[in-house]
């Protein structure tokens, strides 16, 4: 909530529409969490199993996942 009592919707704070890559990654993350993944290793395993593309097209690793989440501001 803001000081004025109004709610801030997360989508109001983004500076661009999500890219196709961001949408694919978001969908993959939602599926991973729905399957019970909680730890980076479990998330990475789910992303790789679902063939969610990573930067550079290489398989996801924990280090790459954490780095990409930081880059995207998650």
Structure overview:
This protein is mostly helical and about 70 residues long. It has one domain. Helices cover about 50% and strands about 0% of the residues. It contains three helices and no strands. The chain starts with 19 loop residues before the first helix and ends with a helix.
Question: What labels would you give this structure?
Answer:
single chain; 74 residues; mainly alpha; 0% strand; globular
Compact summary:
The chain is an all-alpha fold.
Q: What is the rounded distance between the termini?
A: 20 Å
Gross geometry:
globular
Strands, count? 0
Low-pLDDT runs of 5+ residues are none
In total, the number of domains comes to 1
Biggest sheet details: none
Radius of gyration: 15 Å
Which bin fits the share of residues in helices?
40-55%
- Write the H/E string, N to C: HHH
Mean pLDDT: 88
Helix and strand composition category: mainly alpha
Topology record:
Blueprint: H1 20-34, H2 40-49, H3 62-72
Helix pairs in contact: 1-2
